[in-house]
Amino acid sequence: MPRTRRKPRTRVVAAISAVSALGLLVGCSGGGERTGGGRKDGKVTISMGLYGVMGFKETGLLDKYMEENPDVVVEAEIAGDEQTYYTALQTHLAAGSGLKDIQGIEIGRAKELVDTQKDKFADLSGVKGTDHFLPWKQSQVTSGDGKVIGLGTDIGPMAVCYRKDKFEEAGLPTDRDEVAKLWEGDWAKYVAVGERFKEGAKGDKVAFMDSASGLFNAMIYGGPQQFYDKEGELVYADNPVVKDAWKLASKAATSDLTAKLRQFQPGWDPGLANGTFATAVCPAWMLAHISEKAGEANKGKWDVAKAPKGANWGGSFLGVMEDSPVKKEAQELVAWLTAPEQQAFLFQKQSLFPSSRTALESPEVAGAKSEYFNDAPIGEIFGAAAREVPEEQVLGRKDGTIKDIFSQGLTLIESQNKSPDDAWNTTDERVKKAVG
Amino acid sequence: MATSTSSPQDRTTGTGPPPGTDPGVKRRRRGALLHRLDVKGAPYAFIAPFFVVFAAFSFYPLIYTSWISLHRVELASLDFMEWVGFDNYLALVRDERFWNALGNTITIGVLSTVPQLLMALGLAHLLNYRLRGSTFFRVASLTPYATSVGAAALVFTMLFERDFGMINWGLSLFGFEHLDWENNKWAAQAAISVIVIWRWTGYNALLYLAAMQAIPRDRYEAAAIDGASRWQQFTKVTVPGIRSTIVFTIVLSTIGATQLFGEPLIFGQGPNGVTGGADNQYQTLGLLLYEEGWKSYQMGRAATVAWAMFLLLILVFVVQRLVKRFVARKA
Predict the structure, then answer these.
(1) Which one, A257, B19, B23, B252, has least CB within 10 Å?
(2) ABC transmembrane type-1 domain: which residues (chain B) (predicted)?
(3) What is the CATH number of domain B95-330?
């Protein structure tokens, strides 16, 4: 009878849908693994969470480590964008799951992690063979009580990249030593050279620099403190370093010396290729980007000169999680990856500038020249800049966010015709809101 | 069904002799209970998947968001929530960024919705004619809708670029030089509206077309006999004939406009996308929420924006109902 047959079927369907509903609920509450790594059959698996182009996987360093240590398997997961990576890292830290054994730390986040999450990271201060870093690099990830949550990978010492051909057209010297002499010791001289460039340039199609924020960044990242003081208080409003940088950058913006572009945003890349600006303040890691975007056609037109003052923009660290089941092995891997030899190797492969003092002094770094940039002695230029950075640089919790807000403040002057005072007030208000 | 015939019997056994004596009665009672459960419970089991998913992914987040919005919470320390009551809401109402974002959401919404629906109406009217390769044109008008927001917005962002963009190159032929689309408030909002219009016009046109094809031909014939021109046929026969579809598309576009997020985010590129321009000149409510949550990492304030958006939608709904009732009473 169809009636009796239908009944069990409805029951089965009902049961299935109820069970699947339950399954959905259970699925949500899953998880519980501590970190990615573990031990199995005498093999140690170490997981890494990285972002951007840190170079470890790309250059085959991880493979090399696995070859030298046959009982170790390294699994690296790389997020393209650091912002996405950090958001995920924060949720993983808060939830206590989904973490890797080794996590990359960007300099803009270092302070926040030291302040709020240092218990979750293993202390690396005692790891053997890690006393070769630049002093200011390791101070950025050292907590008040001396705990070190990461080991330094690369840094971003700054120089000025400039177009030789545009300088020649404007009647300025083109040799990199003479160019560096023009602005030696003072960023104000750099802006003064800009005025000379503007007078001498033929036509008004070429601006002296790409953006006012590039100049601003270079100036503040040469100082011992930027937006915060050691106690973690916001001091940007009274910090002479920030005030001077703002004044000079807004002067450059209002006297039409900039191409009104934003670095790494649309318009900037074709600007590098087509020469809409003659100079850009460039950290070492930017060289790879410039040579790629400006292309083979502009080889030899770009050159690198020493910046008025040494400064550092960017850089990363590798930290090990305290809860990792393979903590010791992960620490060894981190120490190896950040060792002088590997840093020098990454510099040659990816122009990631070493944070290790020993690597800086090695001949393959100190004597390095860039073919694309007219054989500029980049090892020497950036190495000198790295050594000029103050011994201790105070970082703040929201450095990355505040830097973006200041860049936008300068855009208000450059592209929206706001007065520097108005723009400062807006910026001030925004910083307070973002931090508050 | 099988149920209705047996249920009176069940009831009589329920009120029968004391339980536990006869195993036959026991079995029958268990059977009856299972049967009752089957009858009363099965429908709930059938609808359970939807409601469980809804509760887990919509209702619970909604409630939890409101709880978060009453606290000061940062993403880095989610376990640590500081009770602040309605401070977040008060701060939001006093924050000019909120009113700016609300204004931008409305202006971009109008700029994108009105031309989009008018163009869709015209396009549908044209597609409704008998023409060669009509299927091709109908499919072609739907392709923008099938493109992802990201791809479309990226391409348009390149087209609207200041120095080397194709649109500025085209304008320069007419003597307009270097229009800075991103930094000019109305230019930026117009550019974002263009992306929205490009993506959604064809979709709406197909909805209109489907409705138009349901209008009986004899109405047009009658109108033609009465001497109505093509235009009069369009305004007097076609538009009234698809009125309910027009209302539907207006509702859909309005919802879409209040949620506008991806296009301006990509249009601004990087930090400027999150804040909707250096001067917040095209920051929508969706972007403000994102800025609070994923730039400042202030979860409490982001949740507050989310709830403010929700309350605004409810307000719009209530106002719309009141107006409707008022109009109906007048009529």
Answers:
(1) B23
(2) 102-323
(3) 1.10.3720.10
